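TL;DR need C-alpha cells for one chain.
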Amino acid sequence: SAGTAAIKRQCYALVPRIDLPDLLAEVNDWTHMLDQFTHLQRDVPLTSRAAHPLLAAIMGTGLNMHRASCLLLLSAAIAAWNTVYLTQAVERLRAEGMLISDTLLAHLSPLG
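>> reply
TL;DR here they are.
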C-alpha cells in the first residue's frame, strides 16, 4: 500500500550512507569477523593495520571476480549493518509517534 511504501522510504532515509570499506570496518568492530583470518605463518589474528588490505581484497574479489565466499561475507556484513540501523530508524520513528506495525517490519529488507 501507499502507506507502507511511505514508511519504508522514511526508514531507509534515516539509515546513514556509508562507503563499503567503512561499513565492513564497523561490522568488524561489532563482530570481530576478521579475527577468523590469521597470519599464514604465525597463526595469529591480523592486526588492525593488516585488516584494511584484507577488507580491500575481500571487496575486490567479491565484487570484481564474483567469488561466492567473498560475496557471502559482503552480503552478511551489509545485512548486519542495515539491520542495526533500520532498527534504530524504526525506534526513532516510533518515538516520534509513528505507528509502525511488526507486520510491516517483515517487509523491510536489510539488503535494501
